[in-house]
Amino acid sequence: MSTETESPSIFSRIVARQIPATIVRETDRVIAFEDIAPQAPVHVLVVPKTEQYRDVVELAAGDPGLMAEIVDTARSIAEERADGEFRLIFNTGENAGQTVFHVHAHVLAGGLKE
Ligand code: 5GP
């Protein structure tokens, strides 16, 4: 899998409507859209609009309130689209599967398999 470290990031280009995405939530600070390669019946990416944080460690240290907004957005999507229960995954680092270095949460829900 290739990695993506360009600026603006691919997710910033989605925020700017320069590339298409199926957007399911948007606030002043957060955007959520369908993952292009879903791994579960519900697979949404929740992304801060700022690309200043490359991973969840930087985000949690730099802006805990923004981190909380991401968690609450995930809760809201899972309540609307599934049974309110969900996995929230932040791949952190290339060896852990992170390919886009603009922090994002994977929200996975709806009939998950072990
Ligand atoms: P990571 O591997 O960095 O944790 O997750 C990156 C995610 O972004 C992957 O699940 C991948 O399918 C998704 N993705 C990559 N490019 C695009 C795109 O252009 N549009 C959308 N909607 N998702 C993308």
UniProtKB/TrEMBL annotation:
Q: Which CDD domains match?
A: PKCI_related (cd01276)
InterPro entries attached to this UniProt entry:
Histidine_triad_HIT (IPR001310), HIT-like (IPR011146), HIT-like_sf (IPR036265)
Its domain of life reads Bacteria
Motif (Histidine triad motif) positions are 102-106
Q: Which PROSITE patterns match?
A: HIT_2
Question: The HIT domain covers which part of the protein?
Answer: 10-114
The signal peptide, as residue positions, is none
- Report what the protein is called: Histidine triad nucleotide-binding protein
The scientific name of the source species is Herbiconiux gentiana
